[in-house]
Structure formats: structure tokens, C-alpha cells
Amino acid sequence: MKGRLMRKFHVAGVAVAAMSLALTAGAFASWPAGSAGGGADPGSSVQPGHPIVLSRGNLSPAIRSARNTSRIDSTNWAGYAAARPGTVFRYVRATFFVPYVDCATTPNAFSSHWVGLDGLDSRTAEQLGVEAGCAGAIPEYYAWYEMYPGNESSAFFVKPGNSIAASVYYNRRDKTFALTLDDTTTGRHFSRILKCTASSCPRSSAEVISESPSGSRGKPLPLADYRASGFSDIAVADSPGHRGRLNSRWWSTYQIIQVGGSSTRVAGQPTSLFQGRAFGNYWFRES
């Protein structure tokens, strides 16, 4: 069943690009995954991928029932999520480019770009993607996966400009999650079959996100200048078998704006959805 479902979502040939990115070759050095590096707070290890942190005054998405796109302000996420009270999700996928980070502008700062289930209105998240950060003034990039609240694990190094295809699929028969990532530029691949690391993983949302990673103390770290991150070829499915894009009559769509933790200044903002399946995230300086 999994193979048939994923083949239905596959778009043969190419992914539809959300935007064009002009990328230059950045320094690429060995950096232990999960290490903050550079001059970052020594008590803060980089932990890509976390549930959403709502900005002050935002209501929980669970009490909303809007059928159209609703806006949420967050201090760590930018992008889009699909959710509706009572809806359980089974699958999400997207294609995106590893963004180029400008470490001269934002040294000792970090960014994660990922797809996943849960995290919008739950304290769990099943997710995978890439980290693009700055160890001091040196850019560093790697692929990772996480079953939050379990620990993040690194997979392999990637380079800016590489095309990434990532998906999360829930198998109802054995109650496992298949996390799969392909670097389609180099041909590198990994896939993990994992169990929920919490008492339950409600699968109450599906999302495509650019994020400020958190440190070991749970506080979002400074957001690296990733300029723009383009997501495309996005597909979503719920447990009853309804298939669609980020927008669908079967669920509501949430546009998530990242704002500063101590201000309302925009730090990361998605463009409008293109045909429900593509958008770009843009980085903004908070101050």
C-alpha cells in the first residue's frame, strides 16, 4: 500500500521550482552534527526540528476551524501547515534546495529546513530535513532526522544548491514512521523506519517549514541569513486516504510567519502558495 500511495504522489521527471536561487560555493568543513560550533553559547547544542513556539497572544490552532488560510505568528517556524481538529495525517513530502547561508551577516547562527508530521498542536514531531548554519563565519550543512522528543540524528553532509526530496509516511499496520531523504544532486539517500518516541504521536498536522533550531535549553538560537528557501512538489495525505496539497477541502491551511522572540518584527516569511504545492521562505533581519 505504501508503494502505491507514494507512486501516486510522485511527479515524474522534475519538481516544480518555487523560486530560482542564485547560489555561490560556500566553505564546507567537517562539523559534528549537534554541535553549536564557533562562538555559540557553550550550553547550547544545535537541535534542528522542534514543535512550533507560538508568539505571545497567538491561540492554539486546535481551537480554530477556519476553512481558508489562517495566519499564525511563531518565534521559531516559517512556512505552511495543514491541520483541522479531528483530522489525522499519514503522509507529507516536498522537494527543496539547500539554501546558501550568509555567515558574514549572521555568524554563529543557524537554520533548519524540513518536512514533517505533528508539532503544530502537539508536543511531538516526526520530521527530517537539512541544517544550514554558521560555525562562527564558516557555513556548515548536513541532513538530519528526528522523532521529537527523541534526539536529532545526522545523516550526511550536503552542499548549498543541492536538491533535496524528503518525506514522512506513517504505516498503520506496524505503527511506524518511514522517514526518507534523497539528495537528488549527488544521489545520496537515507531512510529510517522508526517508532513514536512519546506515549502517542497524534499526527494532527503536516507541515513544510524553515526554522530557528533550538539549543539544549529549548530556546530558539539566532536565525542564520538563509536568504531564501524554495519548496515545491508538496503532497499531503490524511489517514482516511484523502490526498491533496497544502490546501485542500479536507483540511485547513495555516500560513506561519516567524517573528522575533522579543518583538513583532518579521524574521522569516513565506510567499503565497502556488497551486497549493510550492512556496518560498524569505529571511529578514530582526533588528
Explained architecture:
- With 287 residues, the protein is an all-beta fold.
- The chain has one domain: Jelly Rolls (Sandwich).
- It contains one helix and 16 strands.
- It has one helix at 2-9, and strands at residues 70-74, 77-83, 89-97, 112-117, 125-135, 138-148, 152-157, 163-171, 176-183, 188-194, 205-211, 228-238, 243-244, 252-259, 266-270, 279-283.
- It has a 16-stranded mixed β-sheet that branches.
Layout of SSEs?
Blueprint lengths: L1 H8 L60 E5 L2 E7 L5 E9 L14 E6 L7 E11 L2 E11 L3 E6 L5 E9 L4 E8 L4 E7 L10 E7 L16 E11 L4 E2 L7 E8 L6 E5 L8 E5 L4
The unreliable regions are 1-44
CATH fold descriptor: Jelly Rolls
Total helices: the number is 1
Would you tell me the structural class of the helices and strands? mainly beta
The name of the CATH superfamily reads Peptidase G1
CATH class: Mainly Beta
Q: Assign the CATH architecture.
A: Sandwich
Distance between the termini: 49 Å
Q: Measured on Cα atoms, how large is the radius of gyration?
A: 17 Å
The 3D shape can be described as: globular
Q: Number of DSSP strands?
A: 16
Helix and strand sequence: HEEEEEEEEEEEEEEEE
- Beta-strand percentage range: 35-45%
Describe the main β-sheet briefly.
16 strands, mixed
Helix content: under 10%
Number of domain modules: 1
Mean pLDDT over all positions: 84
